[in-house]
């Protein structure tokens, strides 16, 4: 570390300090803290999750404790309150930390709890984004995107400057943690951060007006069965410039949405079947990751995971052991999916386009269709705390 200003050694001004202890504020500090903290947890008997290194678990006879660490924010849960209390005392004896009690906020996410569910929301954060855009009192709309591009003349001025556009989009990306209904819109607008045009700023303004009307929306976590279901979809050549397709998939644990992805595919697909199959391979990989994560919670998932796809050609290709000349360029994806089907880790099932929940993650939709899929994703206000039903 360079010598601090005002404390330089006059006889050795070019010398640097050797750090024997990490100093808060330096870029190395989070890594040093994580290493020190997790090393102590490993001594106590914790083990790292196979799927996520920030999740550690302790299983000792009937005691099961789970600890999630994000830099210096820690979330702790388990099935034995006395064991948790003992663990907190051990941590406080080793580190300077404060027990904040039951979780109500974590990393900007509000956690409302009731006997039958938790409700995750980012209302204050969404309001701060509207304040940043100076749209606190704007009129709301029912759909974050239009199915057609807005009509803009060359003389129209953009709604936001380039720097404001980037700041708002960057903020919206964190809001998608509890708002998958805006994930596709944010993903699409994020692709133009380097040089947004006037119609992109108009689309961003409409997205913010949608957030204004749904500022209290969030994601419920309810008690239900532990069956995994994944819905996979793709929109072929959706990008008008690069002609790349968009992958979208979402995974439910029982009735709770636990994972979702919107992503532009890395290469151009020659057919809708190819784009759908690439999305299917990505969805399979994500499902396997969730399956490993559930294994850390001692949840038995030996049975197959249901993976739904609405493309009949993709469904036929996944169950066909013969590789054709037209499918050699996706042979790796095909083998990956087929291996998991044969090992009965996943079970590929057909589904009608009307029931395909991943549609909301791959394309702009009409308002009635958007509202139907949003409700099926369980996104909405918290009835218990909003006084609504």
CATH class type of one domain: Alpha Beta
Query: β content, as a range?
Result: 15-25%
Describe the strand arrangement of the main beta sheet, using strand numbers.
Answer: 11-10-9-12-13
Provide the CATH topology of one domain.
Nucleotidyltransferase, domain 5
Order of helices and strands: HEEEEHEEEHHHHEEEEHEHHEHH
- Using the 3D structure, state the CATH architecture of one domain: 2-Layer Sandwich
Low-confidence stretches: none
> How does the helix and strand content classify structurally?
alpha+beta
- Kindly, what is the distance between the CA atoms of the first and last residues, rounded to a whole number of angstroms? 58 Å
Helix content: 25-40%
Biggest sheet: strands, sense, closure? 5 strands, mixed
How many distinct helices? 11
What's the average pLDDT? 87
The number of distinct β-strands equals 13
Structure explained in plain terms:
By secondary structure, the chain is an alpha+beta fold. Among the domains are: 1-101, no CATH class; 224-351, Ribonuclease H-like superfamily/Ribonuclease H (Nucleotidyltransferase, domain 5, 2-Layer Sandwich). Helices cover 34% and strands 19% of the residues. The protein is built from 11 helices and 13 strands. Strands 11-10-9-12-13 form a 5-stranded mixed β-sheet. Helix 3 runs antiparallel to helix 4 (162-175), helix 4 (162-175) runs antiparallel to helix 5 (183-190) and helix 7 packs across helix 9. The longest helix has 24 residues, at 272-295. The termini are far apart.
């Amino acid at each position: 570390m360079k010598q601090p200003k005002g404390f330089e050694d006059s006889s050795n001004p070019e010398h640097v300090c050797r750090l024997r202890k990490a100093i808060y504020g330096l870029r190395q500090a989070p890594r040093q803290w994580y290493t020190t903290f997790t090393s102590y947890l490993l001594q106590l008997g914790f083990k790292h999750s196979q799927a996520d290194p920030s999740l550690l678990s302790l299983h000792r006879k009937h005691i099961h404790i789970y600890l999630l660490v994000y830099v210096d924010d820690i979330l702790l849960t388990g099935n034995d309150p006395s064991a948790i209390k003992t663990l907190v005392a051990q941590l406080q004896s080793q580190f300077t930390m404060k027990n904040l009690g039951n979780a109500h906020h974590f990393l900007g996410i509000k956690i409302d709890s009731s006997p039958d569910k938790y409700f995750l929301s980012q209302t204050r954060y969404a309001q701060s984004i509207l304040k940043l855009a100076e749209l606190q009192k704007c009129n709301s709309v029912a759909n974050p995107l239009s199915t057609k591009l807005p009509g803009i003349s060359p003389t129209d001025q953009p709604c936001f400057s380039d720097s404001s556009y980037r700041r708002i989009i960057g903020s919206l990306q964190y809001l998608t943690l509890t708002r998958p209904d805006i994930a596709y819109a944010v993903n699409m607008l994020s692709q133009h951060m380097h040089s947004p045009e006037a119609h992109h700023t108009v689309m961003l303004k409409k997205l913010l007006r949608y957030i204004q009307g749904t500022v209290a929306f969030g994601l419920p976590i309810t008690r239900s069965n532990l069956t995994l279901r994944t819905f996979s979809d793709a929109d072929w050549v959706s990008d008008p410039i690069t002609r790349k397709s968009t992958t979208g998939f979402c995974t439910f644990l029982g009735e709770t949405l636990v994972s979702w992805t919107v992503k532009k595919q890395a290469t151009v697909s020659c057919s809708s079947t190819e784009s759908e199959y690439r999305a299917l391979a990505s969805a399979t990989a994500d499902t396997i990751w969730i399956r490993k994560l559930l294994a850390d919670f001692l949840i038995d998932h030996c049975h197959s995971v249901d993976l739904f796809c609405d493309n009949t050609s993709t469904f036929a290709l996944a169950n066909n052991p013969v590789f054709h000349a037209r499918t050699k360029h996706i042979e790796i994806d095909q083998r990956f999916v087929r291996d998991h089907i044969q090992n009965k880790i996943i079970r590929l099932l057909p589904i009608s386009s009307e029931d395909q929940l991943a549609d909301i993650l791959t394309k702009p939709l009409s308002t009635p269709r958007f509202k139907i899929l949003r409700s099926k994703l369980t996104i909405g206000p918290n009835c218990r705390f909003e006084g609504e039903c």
